[in-house]
Amino acid sequence: MTETYYQVGKLVNTHGIRGDVRVISSTDFPDQRYQVGSRLTLFDKGKAVTEVEVDKHYVHKNFHILHFKGYPSINDVEPFKGMVLMVASEDREDDLEEGAFYYEDIIGLEVRTTEGERLGRVREITALGPNDVWHVQRFAKGADILLPYIEDVVKEVNLDEGYVLIDPMEGLID
């Protein structure tokens, strides 16, 4: 069985000479993901390279600085530059609030209106401060629908059946 992984950050550079690395985080749970003892997998070009264990974490100038157990020198971590940090699905134990979802769970869902019209599939999600915007690739030709993730529009997210039910505001789809 193939393990499923979720991206939590990108290793962009080394930091100092003692094996620390700079990470641009893409997780909503950095304290949990990067806590001492966390196990992460480094991926390069979509392929798993190695599993690492975090033994130090702190934030410095908007970067998460990590150190991995068994990698004491800059020479040990230099090859990791540009790689993506992923967490295995079995290690993804986050307590999400009701109505909160992982981006990976939403991307690919079919979008339907309360009138029964099938619009397209969620292709991408952009975080814009107060609410996310879901990019819906239409089944029919045309530009993506930019769908704000707000109560007035998104009425139901059904992960089991693979759809999102929306009540579009006037002008949202046109």
From TrEMBL:
Transmembrane segments: none annotated. Pfam families: PRC, RimM. The keyword Endoplasmic reticulum does not apply. Keywords: Chaperone, Cytoplasm, Ribosome biogenesis, rRNA processing. SUPFAM superfamilies: PRC-barrel domain (SSF50346), Translation proteins (SSF50447). Residues 7-90 form the RimM N-terminal domain. InterPro entries: PRC-brl_dom, PRC_barrel-like_sf, RimM, RimM_N, RimM_N_sf, Transl_B-barrel_sf. GO terms for biological process: ribosomal small subunit biogenesis; rRNA processing. One of its GO terms (cellular component) is ribosome. It is found in: Cytoplasm. GO terms for molecular function: ribosome binding. Residues 98-172 form the PRC-barrel domain. Belongs to the RimM family. The PRC barrel domain binds ribosomal protein uS19. Binds ribosomal protein uS19. An accessory protein needed during the final step in the assembly of 30S ribosomal subunit, possibly for assembly of the head region. Essential for efficient processing of 16S rRNA. May be needed both before and after RbfA during the maturation of 16S rRNA. It has affinity for free ribosomal 30S subunits but not for 70S ribosomes. This is Ribosome maturation factor RimM.
